[in-house]
Amino acid sequence: MLDSIMRIIWGFIKLYLYNLFLFMNINATDLINGDEHPEWETQYGLPFFDNTTRRDVTATVGQSAKLHCRVRNLGDRAVSWIRKRDLHILTVGILTYTNDQRYQSLHADGSDEWTLRITSPQPRDSGIYECQVSTEPKISLAFRLSVIVSRAEILGNSEVFIKSGNDINLTCVAYEAPSPPLYIYWYKSGSVINYSQRGGISVLTERQTKTSKLVIARAMSSDSGNYTCTPSNSDPASVMVHVINGEHPAAMQHGNSSSNSIHSYRNRNNNFLTFHLSKWLLSSPTKMLSSIPTLLFVTISSAMCINFSMR
Predict the structure, then answer these.
(1) What is 151-244's CATH superfamily?
(2) CA nearest 126: which of 82, 85, 92, 79?
(3) Which of 60, 91, 117, 264 gives the lowest tally of CB atoms within 10 Å of its CB?
(4) Tell me: the pLDDT tens digits for 163-189?
């Protein structure tokens, strides 16, 4: 009787040691190969995430955002997308569980990828989203979405004055765009600029630097109007161009350096005059007398500067 019991116990010990040997052998092989998800995990039907997908995603307002979740060995489990900030279930499988129809789960039969697509995302959609698998306990993988407002800007002032016969030079830059724009179009008063109709128009667009330069040679009065640049992935920017005959004070795109220096000098003198006038009013009678020569000098200088700039 005792021998039978010992044989049974020894049999269980040998079976345990055999299974332990198999487990250790498989686990050691996986550790050497650097496999984050060992073969035994796949063999016994446990789902796991493919961590090679991009989990920090930036999108621009109005353009679809996609979060790609790849689950290996899913089996009959379901994949859900959860919005972390309010724990709202957005999708389960390919079904949408929210009234906001901008959210949609994309999945192709036979594929390991479950994609959450957000149509026309807004800055309020930024945050953490979780791809969740219905195992017990559940496993999840977090994704960060940043929705930014990409904007274009035409360098310089919002109003430009060009002397007739000079060239119009406008440079547009797409700021905060996550990728180079596919195109940057130029419009004049709402219509796409026609290169052949007028002639003398050139556009140089550099996608990598997200810039576009519009040059209109020998500006005419008919070139006056509102100019707009529209990158494919940014809000547009506009500038008003005035083509005038003769000189124009301080607002010319070309040749305004001397005019600007005169106005700058006049402003400095006016500020200096104001400072000494205040000092004169607040000082004692003795100090007031000492300030009179300085005030006279500044007043005469300002008058001469104003007279010179108006010529």
Answers:
(1) Immunoglobulins (2.60.40.10)
(2) 85
(3) 264
(4) 999 999 999 999 888 788 889 999 998
